[in-house]
Amino acid sequence: MPTSSHDGRCHLRSAVSGQLAVPRTTTNYADRSFTVSGPAVWNSLPAALRLSVFRRRLKTFLMA
């Protein structure tokens, strides 16, 4: 019986980089919702901040 290295999980580039999916919207009102703006702000943070110890570096980033 051949073995397979595929474990059935989907590996997305966004999962590796720490990016969140930003939902598509059709109105400016919906663009301001937390569902859209939260992931957009997270994705706009520098990669080093997203992928490292988040709480400690967030304070440094915001206070700089």
In words, what does this structure look like?
This protein has 64 residues and is an all-alpha fold. The chain has a domain of 38 residues. The chain has five helices and no strands. The termini are far apart.
Layout: helices, strands, pairs:
Blueprint: H1 13-17, H2 28-31, H3 34-44, H4 47-51, H5 54-63
Summarize the structure.
With about 60 residues, the chain is mainly alpha-helical. The protein is built from five helices and no strands.
Descriptive key words:
single chain; 64 residues; elongated; mainly alpha
So what's the overall shape?
elongated
Contiguous runs where pLDDT drops below 50 for at least 5 residues: none
Give the integer mean of the pLDDT values: 75
Number of strands: 0
- Tell me the distance between the termini: 58 Å
Number of helices: 5
Approximately how much helix is present in the residues? 40-55%
* Strand residue percentage: under 5%
Structural class: mainly alpha
Largest sheet: none
Radius of gyration: 17 Å
Written as H for each helix and E for each strand, in order along the chain, the element string is HHHHH
